[in-house]
From TrEMBL:
It is found in: Membrane. InterPro entries: Glyco_trans_8, Glycosyltrans_8_dom-fam, Nucleotide-diphossugar_trans. Belongs to the glycosyltransferase 8 family. GO terms for molecular function: UDP-glycosyltransferase activity. Pfam families: Glyco_transf_8. This is Glycosyltransferase 8 domain-containing protein 1. The keyword Nucleotide-binding does not apply. One of its GO terms (cellular component) is membrane. PANTHER family: GLYCOSYLTRANSFERASE 8 DOMAIN-CONTAINING PROTEIN, GLYCOSYLTRANSFERASE 8 DOMAIN-CONTAINING PROTEIN 1. Keywords: Glycoprotein, Glycosyltransferase, Membrane, Signal-anchor, Transferase, Transmembrane, Transmembrane helix. It is a single-pass type II membrane protein. The keyword Glycosyltransferase applies. It comes from Myotis myotis (Greater mouse-eared bat).
């Protein structure tokens, strides 16, 4: 009888042990699924990482999510990190970052995020498949940006953020000094899929931009000698806008098939050369100007104080820069380089790369000179 009891006890203990092992493995699987999410239904844009839990005292879980989309290229990764850091430290909103990158950069980005003060942010790393751009862009010797695929990520917002009704897109050469929630709450007029900062706004016209083309008007971006452009009946003197920072109504974006419209004009440009030969700015700007002609809302100009990446940026006063909600180093001179304006403001938010792959050019030059 006692022998049977011993067998029963052993059997019970074995079952308990088995259940404990099963429970442990289940928890491990749950953690894996939580931290690595893939969506095989989306061709070309594959989520790699998803870190869904910020510290409980950091945000109110009942708050609406604020999706922020930003690109992360290997040679500009420090800019992405600084931008994210500035956003995170100037808000208590429920921000989730959708960081769009290429496969070879993902590991570098992940290690940087996990080893810094940003390790508790909520983010998703999304791989951008360059095949999406086949037949839509062409290499131009004088327009190097045309071969940088991540600059076109902004065209695919509804795919990048499939469950959101609204999102913010911003370039990697920005610093946010205000609460990102204020930008997110920018009102959009009925029927408008996006809100941009116009190039004729009060902040931009404080400086004079030198260079080929007219950077304030449509004629600086589109070739009005082409019949297809003339047929659109868009006034060449229409004020252009900057697509480096904007708020998108994704419900309206999808309803109007904005992505398909943008791709249409990209293809037509490859076939017919519709963009200005003295393109005033980003290669992404012309199709956006066409699709959103007189059909976009505006953001507060202090949420895109730009030209800090050109010589004109030096004309801003320190007081004006301090008052800006968002600083944008668009232009040839980036804040991680040698000659940009107000680099000290940018460097306040920069987090050194733990891998040592990315370094500030000016600092590297200074060290070399000392040696």
């Amino acid at each position: 009888m006692s022998f049977r009891k011993v067998n029963i006890i052993i059997l019970v203990l074995a079952v308990v042990f088995f259940l404990l092992v099963l429970h442990h493995n289940f928890l491990g699987l749950s953690s894996l699924l939580r931290n690595d999410v893939s969506d095989s239904g989306i061709v070309g844009l594959q989520p790699i990482d998803f870190i869904p839990n910020a510290p409980h005292d950091a945000v109110d879980g009942r708050q609406e999510e604020v999706p922020v989309v930003i690109a992360a290229s290997e040679d500009r990764l420090g800019g992405t990190i600084a931008a994210i850091n500035s956003i995170q430290h100037n808000t208590r909103s429920n921000v989730i970052f959708y960081i769009v990158t290429l496969n070879h950069t993902a590991d570098h980005l992940r290690s940087w995020l996990r080893s810094s003060t940003l390790k508790n942010i909520r983010y998703k790393i999304v791989n951008f498949d360059t095949k999406l751009l086949e037949g839509k862009v062409k290499e131009e010797p004088d327009q190097g940006e045309s071969i940088k695929p991540l600059t076109f990520a902004r065209f695919y917002l509804p795919i990048l953020v499939p469950s959101a009704k609204k999102a913010i897109y911003m370039d990697d050469d920005v610093i946010v000094q205000g609460d990102i929630l204020a930008l997110y709450n920018t009102p959009l007029k009925p029927g408008h899929a996006a809100a941009f900062s116009e190039d004729c706004d009060s902040a931009s016209t404080k400086v004079v931009i030198r260079g080929a083309g007219n950077q304030y008007n449509y004629i600086g971006y589109l070739d009005y000698k082409k019949e297809r452009i003339r047929k659109l009946s868009m006034k060449a003197s229409t004020c252009s806008f900057n697509p480096g920072v904007f708020v998108a109504n994704l419900t309206e974006w999808k309803r109007q098939n904005i992505t398909n419209q943008l791709e249409k004009w990209m293809k037509l440009n490859v076939e017919e050369g519709l963009y200005s030969r003295t393109l005033a700015g980003s290669i992404t700007t012309p199709p956006l100007l066409i699709v959103f002609y007189q059909q976009h809302s505006t953001i507060d100009p202090m949420w895109n104080v730009r030209h800090l990446g050109s010589s004109a940026g030096k004309r801003y006063s320190p007081q004006f820069v301090k008052a800006a909600k968002l600083l944008h180093w668009n232009g040839h001179f980036k804040p991680w380089g040698r000659t940009a304006s107000f680099t000290d403001v940018w460097e306040k938010w920069y987090i050194p790369d733990p891998t040592g792959k990315f370094s500030l050019i000016r600092r590297h030059t200074e060290i070399s000179n000392i040696k």
